[in-house]
Amino acid sequence: MTQRPFGGTVRKRKRTSGFRTRMRTPTGRRVIATRRRKGRARLAV
Fold this sequence. Notes:
Number of helices: 3
Largest sheet: none
């Protein structure tokens, strides 16, 4: 049986663009800060 095209892996998604991963690097922190300033409901995945 073939896989559907856009399954998405939760683990992969969290590891690359999760909140804790973002907070690890200075650039990631800047991303979070920018999103806070903009008033985003979701800061990270």
